[in-house]
Write a structure and sequence with these properties.
mainly alpha; two-stranded antiparallel ribbon; 4% strand
């Protein structure tokens, strides 16, 4: 149940990040179709990122990896912060360039996907604190 709640939280927050990133970084208006498709595509991308985070999170079932990840605690959320900072400063970092044909400011899909995955993964796989017998 905990994983489901975390996955749903990751889905909602991921969708919001997509929408906010588009609002701040979109350089062109494609008409009403764009307005209709944007929330749908943000939802699809969020589902893909959450699904990938759940699949990659299976590595956390390995005891040594799980113990290491558990020790990070809420510090793992720093990965989210770094990913958002990269998305925000992508133009200054040279990761977002102007496409000569369309004139749109675009970011490499691989870099964007990595940042988005890095944002969603710690939310979906938030380390669980284990109480030690003392």
């Amino acid at each position: 149940m905990r994983r489901l709640v975390q996955a749903l939280i990751g889905l909602v927050i991921g969708w919001l990040v997509c929408m906010v990133e588009y609002a701040f970084c979109a350089t062109a208006y494609g008409g009403p179709f764009t307005i209709l498709m944007l929330p749908i595509m943000a939802f699809v991308l969020s589902i893909l990122a959450v699904g990938a985070a759940l699949v990659v999170g299976l590595v956390l079932l390995i005891p040594s990896v799980r113990d290491l990840w558990s020790r990070t605690g809420y510090w793992s959320i720093l990965l989210c912060v770094v990913a958002v900072l990269v998305l925000i400063s992508a133009s200054k970092l040279g990761l977002r360039k102007v496409d000569p044909i369309s004139g749109y400011k675009i970011m490499s899909p691989w870099v964007w996907s990595l940042c988005f995955f890095s944002f969603v993964f710690p939310i979906v796989n938030l380390p669980k604190r284990h109480e030690h017998d003392g």
